[in-house]
Design brief:
With 620 residues, the chain is an all-beta fold. The protein contains three helices and 50 strands.
Length: 620
Protein backbone atom coordinates (compact mmCIF):
# COMPACT_ATOMS: atom_id res chain seq x y z
CA UNK A 1 0.00 0.00 0.00
CA UNK A 2 1.39 3.39 -0.97
CA UNK A 3 -0.20 5.17 2.01
CA UNK A 4 -0.52 2.66 4.85
CA UNK A 5 -2.68 3.24 7.90
CA UNK A 6 -0.61 4.65 10.75
CA UNK A 7 -0.75 6.75 13.95
CA UNK A 8 1.54 7.99 16.72
CA UNK A 9 1.68 7.14 20.40
CA UNK A 10 2.57 10.66 21.48
CA UNK A 11 3.26 9.97 25.14
CA UNK A 12 2.38 7.78 28.08
CA UNK A 13 3.06 7.81 31.78
CA UNK A 14 3.04 5.39 34.66
CA UNK A 15 0.62 5.47 37.56
CA UNK A 16 2.30 7.24 40.49
CA UNK A 17 1.46 5.38 43.70
CA UNK A 18 2.16 8.41 45.89
CA UNK A 19 -0.81 10.12 44.25
CA UNK A 20 -3.29 7.28 43.65
CA UNK A 21 -3.47 3.82 42.12
CA UNK A 22 -4.88 5.02 38.80
CA UNK A 23 -3.23 8.13 37.42
CA UNK A 24 -1.36 6.81 34.40
CA UNK A 25 -2.11 8.09 30.90
CA UNK A 26 -1.76 7.29 27.20
CA UNK A 27 -1.86 9.98 24.52
CA UNK A 28 -2.11 9.13 20.83
CA UNK A 29 -3.13 10.77 17.58
CA UNK A 30 -1.95 11.92 14.11
CA UNK A 31 -3.94 9.18 12.31
CA UNK A 32 -3.20 9.06 8.59
CA UNK A 33 -3.33 6.82 5.51
CA UNK A 34 -5.30 3.66 4.88
CA UNK A 35 -8.81 3.59 3.45
CA UNK A 36 -11.14 6.06 5.06
CA UNK A 37 -14.76 5.28 5.91
CA UNK A 38 -17.14 6.73 3.34
CA UNK A 39 -20.65 5.82 4.52
CA UNK A 40 -20.70 6.55 8.25
CA UNK A 41 -19.81 10.22 8.52
CA UNK A 42 -16.32 9.62 9.88
CA UNK A 43 -12.89 8.66 8.54
CA UNK A 44 -11.47 6.37 11.26
CA UNK A 45 -12.33 4.85 14.59
CA UNK A 46 -10.04 4.12 17.53
CA UNK A 47 -10.22 2.44 20.93
CA UNK A 48 -8.29 0.82 23.80
CA UNK A 49 -8.33 -2.87 24.74
CA UNK A 50 -7.11 -4.32 28.02
CA UNK A 51 -4.58 -7.16 28.29
CA UNK A 52 -7.36 -9.79 28.02
CA UNK A 53 -8.41 -8.35 24.65
CA UNK A 54 -11.67 -6.85 25.91
CA UNK A 55 -12.67 -3.31 25.07
CA UNK A 56 -11.35 -0.94 27.78
CA UNK A 57 -12.50 2.38 26.34
CA UNK A 58 -13.84 3.70 23.05
CA UNK A 59 -14.73 3.71 20.25
CA UNK A 60 -13.97 7.28 19.13
CA UNK A 61 -15.08 8.19 15.61
CA UNK A 62 -12.92 10.77 13.84
CA UNK A 63 -13.51 13.04 10.87
CA UNK A 64 -9.95 14.33 10.52
CA UNK A 65 -7.49 11.96 12.12
CA UNK A 66 -4.34 13.92 11.34
CA UNK A 67 -5.44 16.82 13.56
CA UNK A 68 -6.85 14.63 16.33
CA UNK A 69 -5.15 13.54 19.54
CA UNK A 70 -6.54 12.12 22.74
CA UNK A 71 -5.18 11.81 26.26
CA UNK A 72 -6.74 8.94 28.20
CA UNK A 73 -5.91 9.58 31.83
CA UNK A 74 -6.81 8.01 35.21
CA UNK A 75 -5.42 4.66 34.09
CA UNK A 76 -4.32 1.91 36.46
CA UNK A 77 -1.28 -0.31 35.93
CA UNK A 78 -1.46 -3.01 33.23
CA UNK A 79 -0.94 -3.64 29.53
CA UNK A 80 -3.18 -1.86 27.04
CA UNK A 81 -3.55 -2.15 23.29
CA UNK A 82 -4.32 1.14 21.54
CA UNK A 83 -5.49 0.67 17.98
CA UNK A 84 -6.94 2.44 14.95
CA UNK A 85 -9.27 0.95 12.32
CA UNK A 86 -9.94 2.28 8.82
CA UNK A 87 -12.87 1.74 6.41
CA UNK A 88 -11.40 -1.46 4.95
CA UNK A 89 -11.27 -3.12 8.36
CA UNK A 90 -7.48 -2.74 8.56
CA UNK A 91 -6.31 -2.39 12.17
CA UNK A 92 -2.95 -1.10 13.39
CA UNK A 93 -2.04 -0.79 17.05
CA UNK A 94 0.59 -0.73 19.74
CA UNK A 95 0.83 -2.28 23.21
CA UNK A 96 1.60 0.09 26.08
CA UNK A 97 2.45 -1.06 29.58
CA UNK A 98 1.66 1.20 32.51
CA UNK A 99 3.30 0.22 35.78
CA UNK A 100 2.71 1.36 39.35
CA UNK A 101 5.60 3.74 39.93
CA UNK A 102 6.72 4.62 43.45
CA UNK A 103 7.69 8.14 44.42
CA UNK A 104 11.41 8.63 43.88
CA UNK A 105 14.35 10.97 43.39
CA UNK A 106 15.88 11.10 39.92
CA UNK A 107 19.34 12.28 38.91
CA UNK A 108 20.62 14.01 35.80
CA UNK A 109 24.28 14.22 34.81
CA UNK A 110 26.18 15.62 31.85
CA UNK A 111 27.81 12.17 31.65
CA UNK A 112 24.55 10.24 32.08
CA UNK A 113 22.40 8.35 29.57
CA UNK A 114 18.69 8.58 28.89
CA UNK A 115 18.60 4.78 28.79
CA UNK A 116 19.59 4.66 32.47
CA UNK A 117 17.09 4.30 35.30
CA UNK A 118 17.92 7.77 36.65
CA UNK A 119 17.48 6.60 40.23
CA UNK A 120 21.06 7.18 41.39
CA UNK A 121 23.91 9.56 40.68
CA UNK A 122 25.86 6.72 39.05
CA UNK A 123 22.90 5.73 36.83
CA UNK A 124 21.70 9.24 35.97
CA UNK A 125 19.71 10.44 32.99
CA UNK A 126 21.47 12.70 30.48
CA UNK A 127 18.72 15.31 30.08
CA UNK A 128 16.35 17.23 32.29
CA UNK A 129 13.55 16.69 29.77
CA UNK A 130 13.86 12.90 30.14
CA UNK A 131 13.80 13.14 33.92
CA UNK A 132 10.70 15.36 33.79
CA UNK A 133 8.92 12.92 31.46
CA UNK A 134 9.73 9.91 33.61
CA UNK A 135 9.19 11.44 37.07
CA UNK A 136 5.94 11.09 38.96
CA UNK A 137 4.01 13.91 40.54
CA UNK A 138 5.77 15.15 43.70
CA UNK A 139 9.12 13.59 42.72
CA UNK A 140 12.50 15.34 43.05
CA UNK A 141 15.01 15.78 40.23
CA UNK A 142 18.64 16.40 41.22
CA UNK A 143 20.95 17.96 38.63
CA UNK A 144 24.58 17.07 39.26
CA UNK A 145 27.15 19.83 38.71
CA UNK A 146 27.50 20.73 35.05
CA UNK A 147 25.96 22.74 32.23
CA UNK A 148 22.75 21.44 30.65
CA UNK A 149 21.98 22.95 27.24
CA UNK A 150 18.20 22.62 27.20
CA UNK A 151 15.22 24.84 26.46
CA UNK A 152 11.43 24.72 26.11
CA UNK A 153 10.98 22.61 29.25
CA UNK A 154 7.29 22.34 30.14
CA UNK A 155 6.73 21.33 33.76
CA UNK A 156 3.16 20.05 34.00
CA UNK A 157 3.41 18.04 37.22
CA UNK A 158 4.44 18.88 40.79
CA UNK A 159 8.23 18.59 40.88
CA UNK A 160 11.22 19.82 42.84
CA UNK A 161 14.07 20.49 40.41
CA UNK A 162 17.41 21.49 41.85
CA UNK A 163 21.12 21.00 42.21
CA UNK A 164 22.93 19.05 44.90
CA UNK A 165 22.37 22.15 47.04
CA UNK A 166 19.14 20.36 48.01
CA UNK A 167 21.23 17.59 49.55
CA UNK A 168 24.11 19.42 51.21
CA UNK A 169 23.24 23.19 51.25
CA UNK A 170 26.61 23.94 49.61
CA UNK A 171 26.12 27.24 47.76
CA UNK A 172 28.96 26.40 45.34
CA UNK A 173 26.45 24.23 43.48
CA UNK A 174 24.50 27.33 42.43
CA UNK A 175 27.20 28.53 40.03
CA UNK A 176 28.29 24.99 39.13
CA UNK A 177 24.83 23.75 38.04
CA UNK A 178 23.56 25.60 34.97
CA UNK A 179 20.55 25.29 32.71
CA UNK A 180 21.73 27.11 29.58
CA UNK A 181 19.32 27.96 26.78
CA UNK A 182 22.27 28.67 24.48
CA UNK A 183 20.22 31.55 23.01
CA UNK A 184 18.08 28.98 21.19
CA UNK A 185 14.77 29.37 23.03
CA UNK A 186 12.91 30.07 26.26
CA UNK A 187 14.03 27.78 29.07
CA UNK A 188 11.08 26.78 31.23
CA UNK A 189 7.31 27.09 31.56
CA UNK A 190 5.90 26.09 34.96
CA UNK A 191 2.40 24.68 34.58
CA UNK A 192 1.81 22.91 37.89
CA UNK A 193 0.55 23.63 41.38
CA UNK A 194 -2.79 25.33 41.68
CA UNK A 195 -4.13 28.21 43.76
CA UNK A 196 -2.54 27.29 47.11
CA UNK A 197 0.66 28.44 48.82
CA UNK A 198 0.99 24.92 50.26
CA UNK A 199 1.79 23.71 46.73
CA UNK A 200 5.21 25.40 47.00
CA UNK A 201 6.24 22.30 48.99
CA UNK A 202 6.25 20.25 45.78
CA UNK A 203 6.81 22.93 43.13
CA UNK A 204 10.33 24.28 43.40
CA UNK A 205 13.44 25.31 41.47
CA UNK A 206 16.40 25.24 43.87
CA UNK A 207 20.10 26.01 43.93
CA UNK A 208 21.12 26.56 40.31
CA UNK A 209 21.74 29.08 37.53
CA UNK A 210 19.37 29.71 34.62
CA UNK A 211 21.10 31.54 31.79
CA UNK A 212 21.04 32.46 28.11
CA UNK A 213 17.34 31.80 27.59
CA UNK A 214 16.08 33.58 24.49
CA UNK A 215 12.34 33.92 23.96
CA UNK A 216 11.19 34.87 20.49
CA UNK A 217 7.64 33.90 21.47
CA UNK A 218 5.55 36.65 23.05
CA UNK A 219 3.94 34.10 25.38
CA UNK A 220 7.09 33.05 27.26
CA UNK A 221 9.82 34.62 29.38
CA UNK A 222 13.43 34.13 28.41
CA UNK A 223 14.10 32.27 31.66
CA UNK A 224 11.00 30.99 33.49
CA UNK A 225 7.32 31.74 33.04
CA UNK A 226 4.85 30.69 35.72
CA UNK A 227 1.53 30.13 34.02
CA UNK A 228 -1.85 31.42 35.16
CA UNK A 229 -2.92 30.30 38.67
CA UNK A 230 0.15 28.07 39.06
CA UNK A 231 2.47 27.91 42.08
CA UNK A 232 6.27 27.96 42.34
CA UNK A 233 9.06 28.53 44.87
CA UNK A 234 12.36 29.70 43.35
CA UNK A 235 15.07 29.33 45.98
CA UNK A 236 18.80 30.19 45.73
CA UNK A 237 18.70 30.69 41.95
CA UNK A 238 20.64 33.02 39.64
CA UNK A 239 18.97 34.30 36.45
CA UNK A 240 21.73 35.51 34.14
CA UNK A 241 21.72 36.93 30.61
CA UNK A 242 18.22 35.77 29.70
CA UNK A 243 16.21 37.77 27.18
CA UNK A 244 12.71 38.16 25.81
CA UNK A 245 12.79 39.77 22.39
CA UNK A 246 9.00 39.82 21.95
CA UNK A 247 7.54 40.89 25.28
CA UNK A 248 8.22 41.55 28.96
CA UNK A 249 9.95 39.23 31.37
CA UNK A 250 13.55 38.76 30.32
CA UNK A 251 14.28 36.42 33.23
CA UNK A 252 10.96 35.77 35.01
CA UNK A 253 7.31 36.26 34.08
CA UNK A 254 4.63 35.47 36.65
CA UNK A 255 1.15 35.35 35.17
CA UNK A 256 -2.37 36.09 36.32
CA UNK A 257 -3.16 34.91 39.87
CA UNK A 258 0.05 32.86 40.17
CA UNK A 259 1.58 32.31 43.57
CA UNK A 260 5.30 33.01 43.31
CA UNK A 261 7.72 32.74 46.22
CA UNK A 262 11.26 33.99 45.62
CA UNK A 263 14.03 33.39 48.14
CA UNK A 264 17.68 34.39 47.70
CA UNK A 265 17.37 35.04 43.96
CA UNK A 266 19.81 37.08 41.86
CA UNK A 267 18.78 38.67 38.56
CA UNK A 268 21.91 39.66 36.63
CA UNK A 269 22.16 41.22 33.17
CA UNK A 270 18.82 40.06 31.73
CA UNK A 271 16.98 41.99 29.03
CA UNK A 272 13.61 42.41 27.33
CA UNK A 273 12.15 44.36 24.46
CA UNK A 274 9.43 45.67 26.74
CA UNK A 275 8.69 45.60 30.48
CA UNK A 276 10.49 43.80 33.28
CA UNK A 277 13.91 42.82 31.99
CA UNK A 278 14.38 41.12 35.35
CA UNK A 279 10.87 40.33 36.58
CA UNK A 280 7.50 40.98 34.98
CA UNK A 281 4.53 40.28 37.26
CA UNK A 282 0.92 40.53 36.10
CA UNK A 283 -1.73 40.33 38.84
CA UNK A 284 0.30 37.74 40.73
CA UNK A 285 0.51 36.88 44.41
CA UNK A 286 4.11 37.45 45.46
CA UNK A 287 6.03 36.54 48.60
CA UNK A 288 9.76 37.16 48.32
CA UNK A 289 12.89 37.62 50.41
CA UNK A 290 16.49 38.54 49.53
CA UNK A 291 16.43 39.57 45.88
CA UNK A 292 19.16 41.30 43.88
CA UNK A 293 18.58 42.99 40.52
CA UNK A 294 21.79 44.23 38.91
CA UNK A 295 23.47 45.08 35.63
CA UNK A 296 20.37 45.07 33.41
CA UNK A 297 20.95 47.26 30.38
CA UNK A 298 18.07 46.64 27.92
CA UNK A 299 14.35 47.01 28.64
CA UNK A 300 11.70 49.52 29.65
CA UNK A 301 12.28 48.73 33.34
CA UNK A 302 13.90 46.10 35.56
CA UNK A 303 10.95 45.25 37.84
CA UNK A 304 7.46 45.71 36.45
CA UNK A 305 4.42 44.88 38.56
CA UNK A 306 1.21 45.27 36.58
CA UNK A 307 -1.49 44.69 39.17
CA UNK A 308 -1.08 42.54 42.29
CA UNK A 309 -3.37 40.33 44.38
CA UNK A 310 -0.81 39.92 47.21
CA UNK A 311 2.58 41.60 47.49
CA UNK A 312 4.94 40.96 50.41
CA UNK A 313 8.44 41.52 49.08
CA UNK A 314 11.38 42.32 51.35
CA UNK A 315 15.17 42.69 51.33
CA UNK A 316 15.58 43.85 47.74
CA UNK A 317 18.66 45.44 46.16
CA UNK A 318 18.28 47.20 42.80
CA UNK A 319 21.77 48.27 41.73
CA UNK A 320 23.62 49.53 38.66
CA UNK A 321 20.87 49.06 36.08
CA UNK A 322 20.34 51.12 32.90
CA UNK A 323 16.85 51.23 31.34
CA UNK A 324 15.04 53.11 28.59
CA UNK A 325 12.11 54.19 30.76
CA UNK A 326 11.98 53.47 34.51
CA UNK A 327 13.98 51.33 36.91
CA UNK A 328 10.97 50.06 38.91
CA UNK A 329 7.27 50.32 38.10
CA UNK A 330 4.79 49.25 40.75
CA UNK A 331 1.08 49.03 40.02
CA UNK A 332 -0.55 47.47 43.08
CA UNK A 333 -4.13 47.70 41.90
CA UNK A 334 -6.46 44.82 42.88
CA UNK A 335 -4.81 44.09 46.24
CA UNK A 336 -6.66 41.59 48.39
CA UNK A 337 -4.49 42.36 51.44
CA UNK A 338 -2.17 45.20 52.44
CA UNK A 339 1.04 45.32 50.42
CA UNK A 340 4.35 45.19 52.31
CA UNK A 341 7.50 46.42 50.57
CA UNK A 342 10.25 46.28 53.17
CA UNK A 343 14.00 46.95 53.05
CA UNK A 344 14.47 48.07 49.45
CA UNK A 345 17.79 49.58 48.38
CA UNK A 346 17.67 51.38 45.02
CA UNK A 347 21.04 52.87 44.13
CA UNK A 348 23.28 53.85 41.24
CA UNK A 349 20.69 53.20 38.54
CA UNK A 350 20.12 55.19 35.34
CA UNK A 351 16.67 55.58 33.79
CA UNK A 352 15.05 57.94 31.32
CA UNK A 353 12.28 59.18 33.63
CA UNK A 354 10.24 58.28 36.73
CA UNK A 355 13.02 56.16 38.15
CA UNK A 356 10.83 54.60 40.86
CA UNK A 357 7.38 54.78 39.30
CA UNK A 358 4.51 54.08 41.71
CA UNK A 359 1.37 53.56 39.70
CA UNK A 360 -2.20 52.69 40.61
CA UNK A 361 -3.03 51.40 44.09
CA UNK A 362 -5.90 49.81 45.97
CA UNK A 363 -9.34 51.32 45.58
CA UNK A 364 -11.02 49.32 48.33
CA UNK A 365 -9.13 50.29 51.47
CA UNK A 366 -5.94 48.21 51.22
CA UNK A 367 -2.74 50.09 52.05
CA UNK A 368 0.74 49.86 50.57
CA UNK A 369 3.50 50.06 53.20
CA UNK A 370 6.96 51.09 52.05
CA UNK A 371 9.23 50.40 55.03
CA UNK A 372 12.98 51.10 55.10
CA UNK A 373 13.59 52.34 51.57
CA UNK A 374 16.92 53.85 50.49
CA UNK A 375 16.67 55.57 47.11
CA UNK A 376 19.95 57.34 46.49
CA UNK A 377 22.56 58.28 43.90
CA UNK A 378 20.38 57.47 40.89
CA UNK A 379 20.27 59.39 37.61
CA UNK A 380 17.37 60.23 35.34
CA UNK A 381 18.48 61.33 31.89
CA UNK A 382 15.13 63.07 31.50
CA UNK A 383 12.87 64.03 34.41
CA UNK A 384 11.62 62.68 37.76
CA UNK A 385 14.77 61.05 39.20
CA UNK A 386 13.48 59.85 42.58
CA UNK A 387 10.14 58.41 43.75
CA UNK A 388 7.26 59.34 41.47
CA UNK A 389 3.51 58.83 41.63
CA UNK A 390 1.32 58.68 38.53
CA UNK A 391 -2.29 57.48 38.25
CA UNK A 392 -2.33 56.98 42.01
CA UNK A 393 -5.18 55.59 44.11
CA UNK A 394 -5.52 54.64 47.76
CA UNK A 395 -3.15 54.95 50.71
CA UNK A 396 0.65 54.82 50.48
CA UNK A 397 2.55 54.76 53.78
CA UNK A 398 6.31 55.42 53.90
CA UNK A 399 8.16 54.60 57.12
CA UNK A 400 11.87 55.32 57.52
CA UNK A 401 12.64 56.37 53.98
CA UNK A 402 15.89 58.02 52.86
CA UNK A 403 15.71 59.57 49.38
CA UNK A 404 18.80 61.61 48.54
CA UNK A 405 20.99 62.77 45.67
CA UNK A 406 18.84 61.51 42.82
CA UNK A 407 19.84 63.65 39.87
CA UNK A 408 17.90 64.75 36.80
CA UNK A 409 20.81 65.13 34.41
CA UNK A 410 18.57 66.15 31.53
CA UNK A 411 16.09 68.30 33.42
CA UNK A 412 15.96 71.65 35.16
CA UNK A 413 16.03 72.30 38.90
CA UNK A 414 12.28 72.61 39.36
CA UNK A 415 9.19 71.05 40.94
CA UNK A 416 9.08 68.26 38.34
CA UNK A 417 12.45 66.89 39.44
CA UNK A 418 11.99 66.80 43.19
CA UNK A 419 13.09 63.74 45.15
CA UNK A 420 9.42 62.77 45.66
CA UNK A 421 7.03 63.88 42.95
CA UNK A 422 3.29 63.29 42.57
CA UNK A 423 1.69 63.99 39.22
CA UNK A 424 -1.81 62.60 38.85
CA UNK A 425 -4.41 60.69 40.88
CA UNK A 426 -6.97 58.31 39.45
CA UNK A 427 -8.96 58.33 42.66
CA UNK A 428 -8.58 59.64 46.20
CA UNK A 429 -4.91 59.39 47.20
CA UNK A 430 -3.26 59.73 50.60
CA UNK A 431 0.52 59.67 50.95
CA UNK A 432 1.84 59.44 54.51
CA UNK A 433 5.54 59.89 55.26
CA UNK A 434 7.12 59.38 58.70
CA UNK A 435 10.64 59.05 60.11
CA UNK A 436 12.06 59.90 56.70
CA UNK A 437 14.87 61.96 55.15
CA UNK A 438 14.00 63.79 51.94
CA UNK A 439 16.74 65.67 50.10
CA UNK A 440 16.22 68.59 47.74
CA UNK A 441 18.62 67.79 44.94
CA UNK A 442 17.39 69.52 41.75
CA UNK A 443 15.86 72.31 43.84
CA UNK A 444 12.89 70.60 45.51
CA UNK A 445 12.21 67.84 48.03
CA UNK A 446 8.47 67.07 47.77
CA UNK A 447 6.09 68.37 45.12
CA UNK A 448 2.78 67.59 43.44
CA UNK A 449 1.27 68.84 40.20
CA UNK A 450 -1.97 66.84 40.37
CA UNK A 451 -4.56 67.70 37.75
CA UNK A 452 -7.29 66.46 40.09
CA UNK A 453 -8.12 67.50 43.64
CA UNK A 454 -7.91 64.03 45.17
CA UNK A 455 -4.50 64.03 46.86
CA UNK A 456 -3.25 64.80 50.37
CA UNK A 457 0.37 64.33 51.49
CA UNK A 458 1.08 64.24 55.25
CA UNK A 459 4.64 64.34 56.60
CA UNK A 460 5.79 64.22 60.22
CA UNK A 461 8.84 63.17 62.26
CA UNK A 462 10.88 63.68 59.10
CA UNK A 463 13.72 65.81 57.77
CA UNK A 464 13.16 67.90 54.64
CA UNK A 465 16.32 69.50 53.28
CA UNK A 466 15.67 73.22 52.91
CA UNK A 467 12.43 73.09 54.88
CA UNK A 468 8.90 73.97 53.77
CA UNK A 469 10.16 76.16 50.93
CA UNK A 470 11.34 72.98 49.19
CA UNK A 471 7.79 71.57 49.06
CA UNK A 472 5.06 72.58 46.63
CA UNK A 473 1.59 71.09 46.39
CA UNK A 474 0.61 73.07 43.33
CA UNK A 475 -2.99 74.11 42.98
CA UNK A 476 -4.79 70.91 43.89
CA UNK A 477 -2.68 68.95 46.43
CA UNK A 478 -2.61 69.59 50.15
CA UNK A 479 0.81 69.01 51.74
CA UNK A 480 0.55 68.91 55.53
CA UNK A 481 3.82 69.23 57.48
CA UNK A 482 3.49 68.13 61.10
CA UNK A 483 5.02 69.90 64.08
CA UNK A 484 7.67 67.23 64.71
CA UNK A 485 9.49 67.61 61.42
CA UNK A 486 13.09 68.85 61.22
CA UNK A 487 13.10 71.59 58.61
CA UNK A 488 16.58 73.10 58.94
CA UNK A 489 20.20 72.07 59.12
CA UNK A 490 21.79 68.97 57.65
CA UNK A 491 21.27 65.26 58.28
CA UNK A 492 25.05 64.81 58.68
CA UNK A 493 25.41 61.40 57.10
CA UNK A 494 28.51 59.42 57.99
CA UNK A 495 29.89 59.47 54.42
CA UNK A 496 27.22 60.06 51.79
CA UNK A 497 29.85 60.78 49.14
CA UNK A 498 30.92 57.14 49.38
CA UNK A 499 27.43 55.70 49.83
CA UNK A 500 27.23 55.53 53.64
CA UNK A 501 23.84 56.96 54.56
CA UNK A 502 23.98 56.14 58.25
CA UNK A 503 23.80 59.13 60.60
CA UNK A 504 26.99 60.45 62.15
CA UNK A 505 27.08 61.00 65.91
CA UNK A 506 26.50 64.75 65.49
CA UNK A 507 23.21 64.41 63.61
CA UNK A 508 20.18 65.93 65.28
CA UNK A 509 18.07 63.26 63.51
CA UNK A 510 19.30 60.70 66.06
CA UNK A 511 16.36 59.83 68.31
CA UNK A 512 14.11 62.37 66.53
CA UNK A 513 11.69 59.82 65.09
CA UNK A 514 8.62 58.18 66.57
CA UNK A 515 8.00 54.51 67.39
CA UNK A 516 4.27 55.13 67.06
CA UNK A 517 2.38 58.13 65.75
CA UNK A 518 -0.82 59.15 64.05
CA UNK A 519 -0.09 60.94 60.79
CA UNK A 520 -2.73 61.88 58.26
CA UNK A 521 -5.30 60.10 60.42
CA UNK A 522 -3.45 56.78 60.11
CA UNK A 523 -1.78 55.02 63.04
CA UNK A 524 1.87 54.39 62.18
CA UNK A 525 4.31 51.99 63.83
CA UNK A 526 8.00 52.20 62.92
CA UNK A 527 9.65 48.98 61.65
CA UNK A 528 11.43 47.14 64.50
CA UNK A 529 14.61 46.74 62.44
CA UNK A 530 16.34 49.00 59.93
CA UNK A 531 17.40 48.41 56.31
CA UNK A 532 20.26 46.18 57.40
CA UNK A 533 18.50 44.31 60.19
CA UNK A 534 19.77 46.44 63.09
CA UNK A 535 17.30 46.83 65.97
CA UNK A 536 15.09 49.91 66.05
CA UNK A 537 15.05 51.82 68.30
CA UNK A 538 18.63 51.48 69.44
CA UNK A 539 19.22 51.57 72.37
CA UNK A 540 15.95 49.91 73.36
CA UNK A 541 13.52 52.21 75.12
CA UNK A 542 14.63 55.35 73.24
CA UNK A 543 13.03 57.06 70.26
CA UNK A 544 14.06 55.76 66.83
CA UNK A 545 16.20 57.75 64.42
CA UNK A 546 14.90 59.50 61.34
CA UNK A 547 15.99 57.73 58.16
CA UNK A 548 16.53 54.23 56.84
CA UNK A 549 19.53 53.27 59.01
CA UNK A 550 19.35 53.11 62.82
CA UNK A 551 22.41 54.30 64.76
CA UNK A 552 23.52 52.91 68.15
CA UNK A 553 23.49 56.55 69.38
CA UNK A 554 20.22 57.91 70.73
CA UNK A 555 21.08 61.62 70.67
CA UNK A 556 23.41 64.01 68.91
CA UNK A 557 26.92 64.55 70.29
CA UNK A 558 28.84 67.81 70.27
CA UNK A 559 30.88 68.14 67.10
CA UNK A 560 32.48 70.51 64.63
CA UNK A 561 31.45 71.25 61.05
CA UNK A 562 34.21 72.90 59.04
CA UNK A 563 33.60 75.37 56.23
CA UNK A 564 36.74 75.91 54.16
CA UNK A 565 37.53 78.25 51.30
CA UNK A 566 40.44 77.18 49.13
CA UNK A 567 43.02 79.39 47.49
CA UNK A 568 42.06 80.48 44.01
CA UNK A 569 44.12 80.73 40.87
CA UNK A 570 47.35 82.68 41.54
CA UNK A 571 46.38 82.99 45.24
CA UNK A 572 48.91 81.70 47.75
CA UNK A 573 47.51 82.83 51.11
CA UNK A 574 43.80 83.62 50.73
CA UNK A 575 42.26 80.45 52.15
CA UNK A 576 40.07 80.32 55.25
CA UNK A 577 38.51 77.78 57.64
CA UNK A 578 35.51 78.37 59.89
CA UNK A 579 34.81 75.87 62.67
CA UNK A 580 31.08 75.71 63.54
CA UNK A 581 30.25 73.92 66.75
CA UNK A 582 27.30 71.56 66.51
CA UNK A 583 24.85 70.80 69.31
CA UNK A 584 26.50 73.27 71.71
CA UNK A 585 25.20 76.63 72.88
CA UNK A 586 27.89 77.82 75.33
CA UNK A 587 31.05 79.86 74.83
CA UNK A 588 33.98 78.11 73.18
CA UNK A 589 37.65 78.79 72.43
CA UNK A 590 39.59 77.25 69.57
CA UNK A 591 43.16 75.96 69.38
CA UNK A 592 44.68 75.95 65.88
CA UNK A 593 47.74 74.18 64.51
CA UNK A 594 49.21 73.00 61.21
CA UNK A 595 51.21 69.88 60.40
CA UNK A 596 52.36 71.55 57.18
CA UNK A 597 53.63 74.67 58.97
CA UNK A 598 54.61 73.63 62.53
CA UNK A 599 55.47 77.20 63.56
CA UNK A 600 52.15 78.65 62.37
CA UNK A 601 49.81 79.97 65.08
CA UNK A 602 46.38 81.55 65.21
CA UNK A 603 44.19 83.15 67.84
CA UNK A 604 41.36 81.42 69.74
CA UNK A 605 38.56 82.52 67.39
CA UNK A 606 36.55 80.14 65.27
CA UNK A 607 37.75 81.38 61.87
CA UNK A 608 41.31 81.29 60.57
CA UNK A 609 42.08 83.40 57.48
CA UNK A 610 44.91 84.20 55.08
CA UNK A 611 45.86 80.55 54.91
CA UNK A 612 48.39 79.05 52.54
CA UNK A 613 47.65 75.65 51.05
CA UNK A 614 48.27 72.90 53.58
CA UNK A 615 46.86 70.80 56.42
CA UNK A 616 45.34 72.43 59.50
CA UNK A 617 43.81 71.24 62.77
CA UNK A 618 41.38 72.91 65.13
CA UNK A 619 40.27 71.78 68.59
CA UNK A 620 37.37 73.50 70.33
Amino acid sequence: MNDPLRFDVISYGNSCSAVSNSNGFIQWGNIQGGTQYTDDGYDYRTALNNEAGSLFDGYWHLDNGSSWSYNRDNMQDGKFYVFVEDGSGCVVGDTIEIVEQARDTYYVSTTGSNSNTGTSASDAFASIATAVDYACTNDTIILLDGTYYEDSLEIDKNLVIGSEFILDADTNHIAATIIDGDDNGWIMSWESGYNSWSDTTNNQIVGLTIQNGNSTNSGYAGGVKVEQSRVLLIDHVVFKNNQNNQNGGGALWTGYDTRIALKDVVFDGNSSSQNGSGWYSGYSRSYSRNLVFKNHAIGYDVIHVSGAREFDVADVKVLNNVTTQHTIRLNLYDLQSDALLTNWEVRNNTAQNRLVYIDDGSRDGKKSYYNNWLVADNISTGDHPGINFMNSSGKYVFNNLTVWNNIASGGAANQYNSQIYHEYSNQSTEIIITNSIIGSTNGYALTSQDWNTNTTISVDYSFIEGGASKTDGGTNTTISLGSSNVLSGSPYFTDAANGDYSLSNVSTLLGAGASTATVGGISITAPTTDLYGNPRPNPAGTNPDIGVIESPDSSAQVGIALVSENNGFCETASGSITANLLNYTGTATYAWSSTTYPSWTWNATQTAISLASGDYKVVA
